[in-house]
Amino acid sequence: MAALGPFGRSPRVGAAVSGGPDSMALALLADRWARDNGGSLLGLIVDHGLRPESRQEASLVTARLAARGIQAGLLPVDGLLRGPALAERARAARFAALEAACREAGILHLLLGHHAADQAETVLMRALSDSGPIGMAGMLPLVELTWLRLLRPLLTFPPARLRATLATEAVEWVEDPSNKDAAALRPRLRMLRHDRDGIGVATNALRATATAAALGRAARATTVAAELAEEAVIRPEGFAVLSGRPMPAGVLAALLQAVSGAAYPPALRSVTALAAAPRPATLAGARLLPAGRLGPGLLVVREAAAMASPVPAHPNTRWDGRFRLRGDAAVPTGAMLGGLGDDAPQVREDSQLPSAVLRTLPAIRLGSRIHAVPHLDFPDPLTCQHLSLLFSPPRAAAPPSFPFGDA
Fold this sequence. Notes:
Elements: E1 12-16, H1 21-36, E2 40-47, H2 54-67, E3 71-76, H3 86-105, E4 109-111, H4 116-128, E5 142-144, E6 149-151, H5 159-168, H6 185-193, H7 201-231, E7 232-234, E8 240-242, H8 249-260, H9 268-276, E9 281-283, E10 286-290, E11 298-302, E12 311-312, E13 318-319, E14 323-325, E15 336-339, H10 344-347, H11 355-358, E16 362-366, E17 369-372, H12 381-385, E18 389-391
Parallel strand pairs: 1-2, 1-4, 2-3, 4-6
Antiparallel strand pairs: 5-6, 7-8, 8-11, 9-10, 10-11, 12-15, 13-14, 14-18, 15-16, 16-17
Helix pairs in contact: 1-5, 4-6, 4-7, 7-8, 8-9
């Protein structure tokens, strides 16, 4: 934990607890660490509602944590139905619930129970999907998001160690039947590895691959940041002015991710040709077009047709993966936050921004009426003063400062 800090005095941390052996061991160890440092742990139990017995199991986990003096919160997920991409949808719903609970409790650090065997499976999955060097780094021990720091302090520990810890402490756990569902890729890979304890040769080799890739990823991230500073000017309106010179594919991919608000950068193979000879194009939710009066190079702007739908505007609302309202925003009741789109001509006035940029600006509407476009001070600076929208693109994972070797 020390390598994943700093945490400040009396740290209050959260932990995602499914009730399985990995997360129960995480809760036990994290609670002890928090108490030793004058802080506390909040266990967060997400009930996806996909099995009839899931609520009863979640209540059982809550009771087991309470028996250890650990405060817990049960987070039900509504409306999740079986069907295509269930794992991805469940993961998104789970993290949304966890993030909301942490924000409500004032928790900055959320601990996840992924261990060494999980890391090995992740590397296998990335290899099967033809992932590049970034993907082959697997899961990182520290990822900084807009509102949370995700920490994986058990990433170097095999699952056998975690079960042994629970056995020593006489702590029971719940076995999730989905972990044996051969129709899902991760459980299938787990069964094919025949390494329940997570200490086999193949598991260790995959972990070593992730370690080497993660260190290389950190070095590349530093290089990309420096090169991006040379090649682009990133504007608070959510677009960039690019030099137009050839650049490494990783630099362009990072810029496209920021401008599009995507959770991940596009695959390097999809941007290699464009990075070598920058030109007008539409790719990965962004557009490259001549900069015109803004300079001799190229603009990189959000693709208007790919923008997210409007969302209710509340303080701290995030829209399109790119902008968020400040926490102290004075938003009218019933307001919606979305793209300016076809209403751009109504508010253009004296703005020097190109139409392609104006259409992608965030706007606050009351019904069909535009209430404010904060980046343009529309309708006036006073109205926009308390409606600041901050360009807040996805953040890349922090460079690893964690002992990746055997613990």
